[in-house]
Every structure is written in C-alpha cells, then in structure tokens.
Design a protein that fits this description.
12 helices, Alpha-Beta Plaits, 415 residues, four-stranded antiparallel sheet, 2 domains, binds zinc ion, six-stranded mixed sheet, 36% helix, 25% strand
C-alpha cells in the first residue's frame, strides 16, 4: 500500500478513538472569555503523547497555553503550518441548551457541545492529521508544524499574534492552513475585515422636564447612528484577482450562511452590538455608549472606515471613540497549489463540488496572510456555530481529517 492508502486505512481502523478524542476535547470547557484553556490543551497533549509526539507549550498568559509541535521530512521542501484554536465561544445562557454545553455527547451521528463546530472538530482533525503524517515522515519532504492557540475568540493577542511575534522561527512557514468552519463545499481563500469601536457621547444632562437646558446623549447617539447607517452597504472596488471568485461564490455563500450572505461579501456592514446610557425616563441622559462592529470588504482598509467614522463624530459635540479591535481584510492566491490539494481531496471525501470562497467572518489566517504567507481554511459546516445546541456531524469531522491529512501529504510530497 502507498503511504496515503496506509494513512486512510489507519483512520478507518482508529475511527472510534478519533471520535472519542473530539468528545473528550469538547468535554474540557474552554470558553473565551474568560479563556482558561489549560484543561482543553491537556487533552491535546495527551493525544499527541499517545502517538509519541513531543510538543511544547508557549505562554503569553499562564491560563492560555499555546502548543507547537513540528517535524522535518526526509528531504528539503516547503514548510506547512497547520493552525487551530482551542478556545471557544462562551456557552451563554445554559437554559437555552437541551443538554449541558460541555456534554461532548456522541449521539445520532453528531458530537454535541459548545465549540464542537468552532473549532474543536477542526482543531482535532489537524492534530490527528499531524500525528498520522508524523508516522509517515520518511515519505515526506519539507517541514510540518502544528500551531495551536488559546486566544482566537477575543482577537488573538495571546495566541497567533504572540506566536508570530515571539516565536516566528517556529510558526512562519511557506503555506498556512486552518480548519475553521468553512463548510465542506467551500475553501476560504480570504476574509472580510472588521473594526470594533466603542463610541461615547457625554453631555451636561439634567431633568427631563427641562429639555432646553442640555442636549440628551441618547438622542444624539440615535442621530449619530443614522449617520453611521449610511456606511452600511457601501461597495468598494474589489481587487482584480478576487473579482471572479466573489462573483462565483455569491450563490455558494447564500447556501452556506443563508440568503443574503452572498450580497454582503463585498460591501461594508454596520452592526450595533450593545448600547447603554441614561438612568430613567425623566432624566436628560448625560451619557450614552455604543459598541459597533463595522465589517469591510477586501480592498478596503481600516483607515478608510476610521476616517469616515471620525467625520461623523466631528458633527457631535461630546462624542469620542475608542478602538477595541482592528482586523484588516486579507486574501491569498486562489491558484496556489494548496487550494488544488484541498479541493481535490475535499471533493473526493465529501462527494461535492468544492469552490474557493471569501469568508464573512475573521480568523487567525489573517495574521499569516498579512506577512505574505498564503493561508486557506477548510472545515465543517457552520450551521450551529456559536448557537445553543452546537453539534458537529461526525461524518464531516472524519472527511475534514481525511482531506487535511491528504492535502498536506500532497503538498509535502511535491518536491
Ligand atoms: Zn473559530
């Protein structure tokens, strides 16, 4: 048997253990915030030990370990980096769940629990892909790195950003792949960017009967929102290399994330996530704070968005703004050999046509793309991602493992 046939037969042989690994991983809660991922990371370490694979932990914060493992093949070749996150979205109100968010229950063809889709199935698949390739490293060229991070959900400062800044010799390669939920019919070659802002308005305030004495901060914020709404739907010139992909992926995005998703892939969107202000009906509110999430298409930069928001703010006395997060849009060449390897193997295992798409959401891939490393995502369907009763289809988890292990095999056997 060829090495890739041997790998596929080992996956078939180990299926129960592969499913059990994901169930145990989901059972180790790692909601971020607050972001204590030690228990979840120890499940990964234990799995790597079963394969006799050494790994090391690197910390920017004690309770947020990042894990790096790597090996070199038998001959020179490209360096591929596999990246996943072990932190997950918070479970929210547990009353909305049919069972504990951390049940890790294996039932009806699914593994249930918070983070099963985003992205413990993907991370588990990458850990196992790395492990099976490690067993066949003598048949490979180049170098393979597994880089797992504990801080993706809140921006990546203690995860990807830290690893790239402090340990670049370990995690900077020639190509980057993650397994974020893209859907089995789609390979993400890029993503929109986002600017998260906290906008405040302060006024003198006073009694609600004396509306002549001071502007009302809540009323002003309403007017300011009307101005910001004008940014929603603004189109920007798509970079030439992306234009055909955007045209072709609209219908696919509609199918993956619901009708209308394809229409917002290349426009600005404005979402108000939280608003607070005032204290009671008869008070002229002296303060109002609004948190806004502005998403921008490829080709645009945060500087353009921030300049537009500043223009709006300048019209309102007492208005100020704090930048919470900036994630620039990023994209890579859709003709890169890795896209071919991922598509070819994904089509083989999922029995579907697989197309390159742009993602509406942001991922750690942007950190690698920003320093010029081509980055791609392929993972499970995002259906229940971040929702109560999150659950990943086991058949998708296994297909994603097989796709990643063989795509990496193909990439590292090219030389
Ligand atoms: Zn994720």
């Amino acid at each position: 048997m060829s090495p890739n046939e041997l790998i596929l037969s080992a996956i078939a042989r180990d299926e129960a253990r592969i499913i059990d690994f994901l169930a145990r991983f989901v059972r180790a809660p790692s909601p971020n915030p607050p972001g204590d991922t030690r228990e979840a990371m120890s499940v990964v370490e234990e799995e790597l030990r079963r394969f006799d694979i050494p790994s090391r932990l690197l910390f920017a914060k004690d309770e947020m370990p990042n894990l790096v493992a790597d090996f070199r093949g038998a001959r020179p070749g490209p360096h591929l980096v596999l990246n996943g996150h072990v932190d997950v979205f918070p479970a929210g109100d547990e009353a909305g769940w049919s069972r504990s968010p951390w049940s890790g229950l294996v039932q009806d063809g699914y593994v249930h629990g918070r983070g099963a889709v985003d992205m413990k199935a993907g991370t588990a698949a990458l850990v196992l892909a790395f492990a099976y390739l490690h067993e066949h490293r003598d048949s490979l060229g180049g170098r393979l790195t597994l880089a797992l991070v504990s801080d993706e959900e809140t921006g990546g400062r203690y995860g990807a950003e830290f690893l790239l800044k402090e340990h670049s010799e370990l995690v900077v390669g020639d190509c980057y792949v993650n397994a974020e939920p893209s859907s089995v019919g789609a390979i993400e070659v890029g993503e929109k960017g986002a600017v998260h802002l906290r906008i405040s308005i302060r006024t003198a305030g006073g009694h609600g009967a004396y509306t002549h004495q001071s502007p009302n901060a809540i009323r002003l914020m309403g007017e300011l929102q009307r101005d910001l709404n004008r940014l929603h739907g603004v189109r920007y010139e798509t970079p030439a290399d992306l234009a055909p992909i955007i045209t072709e992926c609209r219908a696919v995005i509609d199918r993956l994330v619901g009708k209308g998703g394809g229409d917002i892939i290349d426009v600005v969107t404005v979402n108000y996530g939280a608003i607070k202000g005032g204290s009671s009906a008869n008070v002229l509110a002296p303060d109002c704070v609004l948190e806004v999430d502005i998403r921008m298409p490829a080709g645009m930069t945060s500087a353009t968005i921030l300049a537009s928001v500043k223009d709006v703010l300048a019209k309102y006395e007492g208005a100020s703004m704090e930048v919470i997060t900036i994630m620039e849009p990023s994209w890579s060449d859709a003709r890169h050999p890795m896209v071919g390897h991922l598509s070819h193997n994904a089509e083989r295992f999922s029995n579907r046509t697989v197309v390159p798409v742009m993602s509406l959401g942001a991922s750690d891939a942007r950190f690698w793309r920003q320093i010029g490393i081509p980055g791609y995502s392929y993972g499970p369907s995002p259906d229940t991602m971040g929702a109560p009763d999150e659950a990943v289809k086991i058949s998708e988890y296994l297909d994603i493992l097989k796709t990643h292990v063989l795509a990496a095999f193909d990439y590292l056997s090219e030389t």
